[in-house]
Amino acid sequence: MSSTWGEKVKISIFGESHGNGIGVVIDGLPSGYKIDIDKVLCQMARRAPGKDKTATPRKESDTPKILSGMLSDTTTGAPLCAVIQNTNTKSGDYNGLLDCPRPGHSDYPAFVKYGGFNDIRGGGHFSGRLTAPIVFAGAICRQILESKGISIAAHISSIADVYDDEFDSVNTDLSLIKRLNNSSFALINESVELKMREAVEEARMSLDSVGGTVECIITGVQAGFGEPMFGGVEGVISSIIFGIPAVKGIEFGKGFELTKMRGSQSNDSFCYNGENVVTKTNNCGGILGGITNGMPIVFKTAIKPTPSIAKEQDTVNLVTKENARLSVHGRHDPCIVPRAVPVIEAAAAVAIMNIL
Amino acid sequence: MSSTWGEKVKISIFGESHGNGIGVVIDGLPSGYKIDIDKVLCQMARRAPGKDKTATPRKESDTPKILSGMLSDTTTGAPLCAVIQNTNTKSGDYNGLLDCPRPGHSDYPAFVKYGGFNDIRGGGHFSGRLTAPIVFAGAICRQILESKGISIAAHISSIADVYDDEFDSVNTDLSLIKRLNNSSFALINESVELKMREAVEEARMSLDSVGGTVECIITGVQAGFGEPMFGGVEGVISSIIFGIPAVKGIEFGKGFELTKMRGSQSNDSFCYNGENVVTKTNNCGGILGGITNGMPIVFKTAIKPTPSIAKEQDTVNLVTKENARLSVHGRHDPCIVPRAVPVIEAAAAVAIMNIL
Amino acid sequence: MSSTWGEKVKISIFGESHGNGIGVVIDGLPSGYKIDIDKVLCQMARRAPGKDKTATPRKESDTPKILSGMLSDTTTGAPLCAVIQNTNTKSGDYNGLLDCPRPGHSDYPAFVKYGGFNDIRGGGHFSGRLTAPIVFAGAICRQILESKGISIAAHISSIADVYDDEFDSVNTDLSLIKRLNNSSFALINESVELKMREAVEEARMSLDSVGGTVECIITGVQAGFGEPMFGGVEGVISSIIFGIPAVKGIEFGKGFELTKMRGSQSNDSFCYNGENVVTKTNNCGGILGGITNGMPIVFKTAIKPTPSIAKEQDTVNLVTKENARLSVHGRHDPCIVPRAVPVIEAAAAVAIMNIL
Amino acid sequence: MSSTWGEKVKISIFGESHGNGIGVVIDGLPSGYKIDIDKVLCQMARRAPGKDKTATPRKESDTPKILSGMLSDTTTGAPLCAVIQNTNTKSGDYNGLLDCPRPGHSDYPAFVKYGGFNDIRGGGHFSGRLTAPIVFAGAICRQILESKGISIAAHISSIADVYDDEFDSVNTDLSLIKRLNNSSFALINESVELKMREAVEEARMSLDSVGGTVECIITGVQAGFGEPMFGGVEGVISSIIFGIPAVKGIEFGKGFELTKMRGSQSNDSFCYNGENVVTKTNNCGGILGGITNGMPIVFKTAIKPTPSIAKEQDTVNLVTKENARLSVHGRHDPCIVPRAVPVIEAAAAVAIMNIL
Q1: DSSP code per residue over C114-176
Q2: Residue D54 pLDDT class (50, 70, 90 cuts)
Q3: Do B79 and C14 touch (CB under 8 A)?
Q4: What pTM value is reported for the model?
Q5: Which domains does chain B have, with CATH numbers?
Q6: CA angle (B144, B149, B151) in 5-degree steps
Q7: Shortest Cα distance, chain D CAs vs residue A152, angstroms
Q8: B108 vs A239: CA distance, rounded Å
Q9: Quick one: pLDDT band at residue B82, thresholds 50, 70, 90?
Q10: Is a pLDDT exceeding 60 seen at residue A93?
């Protein structure tokens, strides 16, 4: 495994930030599903940069061209390949980096791994731009899941020390999910937007960056999905989520908070809701023993601050073998968290396709 | 995937808590490695129950019988199978559970998934007892890794709200690692042991349980290992770690704390240490872009409180289809965290074998 | 992949001919299937040696002990592990082989691959004895398939230049399948048995061995199973069949004969049989474009002569680095073909479980 | 698995005959290899149609555009994606086929599998055109293998009942390999070309088609590669080779001929050739116990006659549910064997990359 993920529905991501193009092959999609391409483009637009000051000013058209796997907007069951041409690349910005790896970036380990032959321009294959094909794949999967009654939404749970509310993971609000799905700065409590933007702007003005957390909910998955042990839902979701650049942590349900609870608090009691077995709380995030229990699946991810900052940092010069100083120029988001939201939703959609 | 994990070195775990036996097949081990079986048994003893009041009074001999893959204590390169007979099983304790799923356990989703045919006695295949073969596999892998200069250690980072110190992840102390590797209540700062044991004892006296966190460090892995995107080291480690029962979260390096930092704080600056490129801090936990950077790999996992508690809880009766009350009897740890330490070390060892 | 095979139902084979035991873990079996263990033992008895002069005089009890995955004869859905103890091993017979690799055997390449650390006694992990766990796994899968109306049978298609009849692959005779399933010298036309046994006996008397072919049929698989390209049914079946020692060729339907036909002869015309689309001939062996077409799946495998012969052969001495002469003593079948029949049926059963 | 193959070097093939484009993602290529694109195009030209009367008159430019994974003609280590635009598609030719499946084609089973949503034009994803990306991937892999001293060549072993000579698989002739690698009608004994072309022309004049066999040799692979059992070299090669349309059989070394030999004839004796252990014959095709023995790897595949023939055939009409008659019009090769040669070489190259 590396840039390929999945067993039933397999995505194979390709491309480098400043190469000819990026894209994805989705192998294993069921046939006969009508895909609304406008909805796909809408998800891609949420991830696209250049919308406001939290994001890089680089403008991408990011319009995917579908080469295969669709006939008149319907999946054929054959592998679906979509390609996004790279345009508007300013490689000049990256020249100095060839010698001096950027702190917090893949530059140095990639240099060692690939013996210096990797395409370093824009981060190459490690660029955040490679999340565009993930969003594409997820937008396709999501439409198939929606036809089965499954919804997925994520929101900015925090930026720096500014917090949004959390999902009600027992009684989910489908109108909230719909609203979040169309937002490019997705928040449950929209009144915190200003404070969050201020935190980002402060960092930007200090030539710095900030991180945050993204919470994601998946509703409508019946009980009994997932496999025991290493095929558990937590393992499957985490293995795709850590494929997203800058993710450094993941927790399911109450996650790390559970470690401070007593069992009598953390256990979610069962009760009947009509014919259905439900839980009164959802501290386990809808997963017990790796298997879904029919409650919404909930997880939160930690997104580190964008490592590319204009502030001068210590690094090394791999050519002269001396210590060096570096300020990263070019177009970089002071905060990647808002754009990570649709990426995490998309990865979750691909994961759920593989669990069902 | 399900009870099988790995690509280069693949482990296949089998067994049910109260069946005839449990064990593991390890496929892909290199040939010609001399294995010290006493060291393997020492790791298994660390996980074994019955040592003190934090653990279940069930005593297991847990002596693995090696059926294949070894000749005169040396690996042959063929799949290594080890079997542990199940003895001392008290199935009577579980009778009532067949109708009433235990809150916080896999009982209910497993009932749905397997249509009631799964072996529910002792949690069946979902039992914590299935971590014994993981420890066995890890103990084999660890000896091979040690011959390559790689060490792995974990400690109880917290129980309830009592915290141990954290690893120094820049300048690691190999004598500390050695001490932890032989401890059954592994702590960096041993003075917190009493407080932790008190927290567990309080929970036990309240017929309740507590959770905690485990921090793990892996030293000696060179820069340049791991694959991009979904083959990143974080994804590989997390996908095996979530196979351990009760794990609900994982973070690498400073993890969720990073989300509150500025980029200038979270980025680990590079510098030369003689000929070697090192970082001055290790907030990224030794992994950048999914690839090792040569610094120690560090991660922390969240362990939820043991769900089996004697305190009465709300549940449902799946036969009468009515709400019900349940107190879980039988032999259960009020705190699983100390015994999770060698399991996490073992899973890390299997993961690293797959990354190299 | 190596000794592990399968995606949905994964088998992991372990053991060495003269080690403590051999066995299999079957991961991914559906729960709730009642297994008739006597039928399983009956299939294993067909493969077991010592029945007559075509086979090695080594007698194995070969009774598998099931450690997990079954409760009161019913599958639980957890991994099923079965272990067969090795008894009656005469390692002394193999002493000289450590220096002089047997022509036609894995000894030399295994020596290179494992650096001499592999267990050479009895062929180690490469021994034909390792097909016993395959038969076990296949016997379990076969019973599940039978409950879905799928039958599998194979027969000795040829030994040396003595030929049996071929299956009628358009109108299959289920009573024939039943008869073959219980035969230890499976033939469609039983009148050729004597001639075949004579061919084997002649080889044995000349201290030599003979090969042959095995034809296998699978009936009751509906149209539309299999995946395009590399997931095609031919590829899936061949990848497990070549895991059986001594198999050197496989062909589907008329196979190599098709290469001498015109398209108008080899194409199987469609017609309606009531509501069902059937083909008038079955030259394609039930597979078109890798996908089943609803007709019986038919394939034939080439089994090379047993390489272990008492006749003196040229070899090398890897210690003295000189040419050498070798006669292989010990218990060896002069013809492995009759015992390969249940192994091929079993591998086909495991393959079909993965295709459905 | 389906249109994705491989573990170390994974190819993911996409596209449909008359869709927007076809191509391949190659994931896992080592970095730093200079690729001669002209040599790649040369291999693709060998497969391209329209060269003479044995092939379909459809002319494809088939120039692949490389989107990623290369920088200045050198592999970067990131996934390499190449896209071939589809041009010159005459979909009109296929209209009638929507109702009446072509005998010998995937039409009917694909209709069942995909519920009629698959792209039937030109065979869709099942088209022989999808072998172009395989040739591309193989041409890349082959150049990397050549730098390690490994050569691959194939030739038309037979068409109908006209036979070429066979490879000398003990003393291989590298100048022959070079000649074959550049031939579009690859023969060891070029004097049989006329007879073969006549056999094809006769079939074409009868509105019919013919099949044949392709023999492939791989030289320079050291002893000790491959895994035991299901990871054996025969299994790995066969699982990719059966992904090529029209392949219905494969045999290694003397294959089916071995079944008529005595062990003393089929066993390849070892001897020293200077320091090296070699075999005097190569009946096993360079593979013992699934592991390479250092001799050339040799295998032969059976290619069925092109199923698309102009001669009228019996079929069914899936709409009216009545029997029907069909003659397949459009551009079809009366014999696919010459064009299969570079495809088989390419698949072998991808397989060997995964074995090393």
Answers
A1: HTT-S--GGGGGGSGGGHHHHHHHHHHHHHHHHTTT-EEEEEEEEETTEE-----SSS--HHH
A2: low
A3: yes
A4: 0.94
A5: 4-355 (3.60.150.10)
A6: 80
A7: 27
A8: 25
A9: very high
A10: no
